[in-house]
Predict the structure.
Amino acid sequence: MTAEIMSAAETSMNRALDNLKEAFSSVRTGRANPMMLDKIRVDYYGQATPINQLAAVKVPDAHLIVIEPWDKSILHGIEHAILASDLGITPSSDGSVIRLPIPALTEERRRELVKDCRGFSEEARIAIRNARRDANTKIDRGKKDSEIPEDDARRAEEQVQKLTDKYIAHVEEMLKKKEAEVMEI
């Protein structure tokens, strides 16, 4: 029974880390990153379709993203979706490709992005602590129902705490790397 509880807790904690990675990938660092476009959807024959399914997204250098649609008729739709998004980048089109020049970030904007990253990491820590709480609740319930002996319950709670500490350390490490990446000029 404790193995099932530990497995469920670890799965929840892994999910929190995955969500944090996804949130960090959407943060603009001043470098061209095709993942910046992942959340932008283009209306393509009545379907909201991600840009990477409509075009080749290339990064020829650190400050430029080039989008080359496979169907040239969707070029204007992609351009409009980028303008309507919260990227804050104005696309330029030459009729066959769209170029997104990534401007260098100001110091103030970098600090705002670091603050956002800290918020994302706090959400991940909360999710990890919630997984710990759920696991401990299940262990206590098992102890009260006499399904888990008291010694095993105590050991299981210690394991859950060690697992929590390990995942919190992963979050801190990821945050430190992302802060360094954002603050790098």
User: Anything to note?
Assistant: DSSP finds four helices and six strands in the chain. The mean pLDDT is 88.
